[in-house]
Design goal:
Helices cover 63% and strands 9% of the residues. The protein is α/β, with parallel strands linked by helices and 380 residues long. It has three domains: 4-93, Up-down Bundle (Chorismate Mutase Domain, subunit A), CATH 1.20.59.10; 107-247, Rossmann fold (3-Layer(aba) Sandwich), CATH 3.40.50; 252-341, 6-phosphogluconate dehydrogenase C-terminal fold (Orthogonal Bundle), CATH 1.10.3660. Strand 1 (107-110), helix 4 (115-126) and strand 2 form a beta-alpha-beta unit. Helix 2 runs antiparallel to helix 3 (74-93). The longest helix has 42 residues, at 5-46. It is globular. InterPro entries: 6-PGluconate_DH-like_C_sf, Chor_mut/prephenate_DH_T, Chorismate_II_sf, CM_dom_sf, CM_II_prokaryot, CM_T, NAD(P)-bd_dom_sf, PDH_C. One of its GO terms (molecular function) is cyclohexadienyl dehydrogenase activity. One of its GO terms (biological process) is tyrosine biosynthetic process. Residues 5-96 form the Chorismate mutase domain.
Amino acid sequence: MSTPSGAQEALAPLRDQIDDVDAQVMELLARRLELVSQVGEVKGRHGLPIYDPARERAMIATKRERAAERGLPPDLVEDVLRRCMREAYTHEKNMGFTRQAPDLGPVVVVGGAGRMGALWGRMFALSGYDVRVVERDDTPEQVAEAVDGAGVVLVSVPIADTLDVVRGLPPLPADCLLADLTSTKREVMRAMLETHPGPVLGLHPMFGPDVDSFAKQVVAAVPGREPQASTWLVEQIRLWGARVHEVDADEHDHAMGLIQALRHFSTFAYGWHLAHEDRDLDTLLALSSPIYRLELIMVGRLFAQDAELYFDIITGSSDALELVERYHERYARAIELLRTGDREAFVRQFGEVEEWFGEHAERFLGESRALLAHADATRS
């Protein structure tokens, strides 16, 4: 629909002023990033983590108060600041980090040409470590040469290959730390402890290789042998900005069954069902509410990635199938509530789940509003 000429004349100078303000905002953002670079250099020199949760909370609270005093929506100001901080963490990362183990031998990343291995290799390099990369087509002689004098050997290969790769490693230096990045821990920890008599640590980054920064990310750490020998690595990861959560192998794998295996399987089954319902996706998107659009985004995200990787994640734990089967049984019972029209039973089960979520339910309701607003704002 065309805009009337009178409206165009009235809008033109206002739009010019908005363009001028936008230009000023960009100049200020550029200045902010310059200051962030300086902050990153200071943090790097003094061994400070790029993510300081207390500082972030205090800054957001103060800025929200000032926004309200100025007559600005506090949520708007917080959204802008959080986006700026996310960019700042990425920018600070490139300034480098203090090396937590200055006398450590080379860091050998087995599978370092893969995306996750390459990401960790870059982080070690940014911290001043000598990084070596080993790949599967390297000869035994090349692998033995790479691990000679190594301070850390980090295994980052597909889940299905991890046990064979670990067991096929040549003898490592006695004080070398052997670690892995596998999403299941019970079997790989056993294999690492059997293969290497020295220090062992299990790691599981709870994020993909496409992250801009480790800031606010979570890394699970599973103690193996000689935990004091891996303290420096845990602190190095914290320095990169990540939260390190220590957990034993059994508890980790049980949690991953729910967080990863069951979630990914449910997403796979839902996507499979949608495809076989054969409805036009563009129509679904055009008619979708923000929450359904966000759900479609998360489902579609899975199918833009490696199918074999997700099969390995879903089947990586020995008890994952039993977990999925229990979910199937409860799903069938839920369907029965609908088939019999049992409203009272449905409300009762709903209440049980609500009670399990407790106070988190209200908090999640608030957090989801921000996600839904973002999903709605980005739709074209």
